[in-house]
Amino acid sequence: MNKKFAINNFIGILFVFFIIFITAGGAEAAVAFPTITVGMGDANTPQEFTQGVQILVLLTILTLAPSIFIMTTAFIRIIIVLALTRQAIGMASLPPNQVLAGLALILTFFVMAPTFNKINETAIQPYMNNQITQQAALERGIKPMREFMIKHTEEKELGLFLSMAKIEKPKNWEDVPTYTLIPAFVITELKTAFKIGFIIFLPFLVIDIVVASILVSMGMLFLPPATVATPFKLILFVMIDGWYLITKTLLEGFIT
Prior knowledge:
By secondary structure, the chain is mainly alpha-helical. The protein is 74% helix and 0% strand. It is elongated, with a radius of gyration of 24 Å. Mean pLDDT is 75; it is low at 20-31.
């Protein structure tokens, strides 16, 4: 029970601090943030020592925030599908990795905007206004993220981690520990992303096979099929408005 409580608090802290940074700019009311200074001095009271340790722990936890963000949002599925699409077209470096990562981040923020706004409204703003305690803010902050992950997690993957953790089957989703929900969500997203990638690969694979067969029949064995097939795949991708269709499919998979 203590292990579950500690892990849930750890993840909750990451979520809350991350949402503070991405929603502070769009808040309707200006929020006065305290100035942070790093230094060492004598603690006059035990409370001062405890506060210093808490700040040090929080700064350490924030270094893991990007990894937690990647593994608990729509970023996994989006970046994998975009990368597989580039590989299916046959362009190893176009679009560049920076463009794919930037597009994946933008789409991730679009998908996660309702969840982030809910965390801001129910946890961050009440805590900043001294309406709720820190513990209550952590519990409220992690709840919307759990709801998102639960919606996109399959029971088969979740059952694997529950059995490995030797946890009895929960009666409802609220009883599922967060430290088992996150890896189950990641595995589900990986599986879904590769399913979408396989469907994207099929038409381009057909083009590669047709071009290779034509070159062999013409006796042009030393001409790489990729050199001839790549322009045809690009034409096909542009004609069907591929980026629009892929983006639409990804967004519908999360929003609907």
